[in-house]
């Protein structure tokens, strides 16, 4: 029985097609809800990995340096080489995003632009390159979370954008799971773009953040799905402060192909719980990457998820997990696992 034939008070994510203005896109360049309270003092550095504490202290210093750039004259006179450009590299769940959000809060949200790599490329698409530069140059700090290069066009785009901002004295801080001088490696073989990648890498002071994925301490590495009928019943019966959606997995995947990724966040406006029935392994790369973006937006907004079908098990094919985008997929599994655990806790079906 499909979700459409069973919907009670629940709605469907696949029926939501938002239209997001460029002004809203720009206004949303702030740390996500999940990191609204992130501060340097709330970051729990693991004593077994000294690089975590070292990184936190370096970012504290950077915040003081950045906060000294108060007026346009100071920024104009400031040598661009003195504007910090920091690149945090490390595995999943070691707290890089927490530290990045802490830096943004320390400098001041009103003086900072904060977004993921794909959100910046989407912003350029919405505003145009020149207007994006002008808008971001109004800030003293630009934070880029999950800095990844998916195609040669993005390489050139982000390299130009960062050069323009750095030349205007804007500080840059980024996180990624790939060292700067390895960007593009294993994703596309194009010698023409090697120079762009190297020039981009030279802008950053690299801080390695070692550690374990903290989400794996409380989130099962394997989580089979709930029976689809249970997902329907639980999603429709649970009391949450907001809307509940229930969709067939394939319906959502098809819908994502017709909605621009910059609008995935707006699809989730007012939604407090997402149920997905018939979850199964994803074999297509483009489909998988779109779903990764949706998972990121769900995670940013702390929306619990109920997974039916096969759940997390074998969600992405072995080929995908071993390919050039494997780090995106493993990040998505880590985040989706956390959201699925929250969903189960919400309805009393937690995984032991």
TrEMBL record:
Keywords: ATP-binding, Cell cycle, Cell division, Nucleotide-binding. The keyword Cytoplasm does not apply. Transmembrane segments: none annotated. Pfam families: AFG1_ATPase. The keyword Cell cycle applies. One of its GO terms (biological process) is cell division. This is Cell division protein ZapE. It comes from Populibacterium corticicola.
């Amino acid at each position: 029985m499909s979700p459409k034939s069973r919907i009670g008070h629940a709605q469907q994510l696949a029926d939501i097609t938002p239209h997001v203005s460029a002004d809203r896109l720009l206004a949303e360049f702030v740390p996500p809800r999940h990191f609204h309270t992130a501060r340097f003092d709330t970051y729990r550095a693991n004593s077994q990995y000294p690089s975590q504490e070292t990184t936190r202290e370096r970012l504290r210093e950077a915040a003081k340096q950045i906060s000294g750039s108060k007026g346009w004259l100071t920024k104009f006179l400031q040598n661009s080489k003195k504007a910090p450009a920091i690149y945090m590299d490390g595995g999943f769940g070691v707290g890089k995003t927490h530290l990045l959000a802490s830096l943004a809060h320390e400098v001041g949200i009103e003086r900072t632009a904060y977004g993921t790599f794909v959100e910046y490329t989407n912003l350029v698409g919405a505003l145009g390159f020149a207007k994006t530069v002008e808008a971001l140059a109004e800030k003293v700090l630009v934070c880029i979370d999950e800095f990844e290069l998916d195609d040669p066009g993005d390489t050139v785009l982000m390299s130009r954008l960062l050069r323009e901002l750095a030349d205007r004295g804007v500080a840059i801080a980024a996180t990624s799971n790939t060292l700067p001088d390895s960007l593009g490696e294993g994703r596309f073989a194009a010698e023409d773009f090697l120079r762009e990648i190297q020039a981009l890498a030279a802008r950053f002071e690299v801080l390695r953040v070692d550690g374990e994925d903290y989400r794996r301490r409380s989130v099962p590495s394997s989580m089979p799905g709930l029976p689809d009928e249970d997902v329907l019943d639980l999603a429709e019966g649970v009391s949450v402060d907001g809307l509940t959606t229930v969709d067939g997995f394939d319906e959502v995947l098809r819908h994502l192909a017709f909605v621009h990724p910059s609008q995935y966040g707006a699809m989730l406006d007012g939604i407090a719980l997402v149920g997905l029935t018939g979850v199964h392994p994803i074999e297509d790369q483009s489909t998988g990457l779109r779903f990764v973006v949706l998972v990121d937006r769900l995670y940013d907004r702390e929306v619990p998820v109920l997974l039916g079908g096969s759940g997390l098990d074998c969600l992405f094919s072995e080929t995908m997990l071993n390919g050039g985008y494997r780090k995106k997929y493993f990040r998505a599994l880590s985040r989706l696992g956390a959201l699925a655990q929250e969903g189960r806790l919400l309805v009393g079906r937690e995984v032991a």
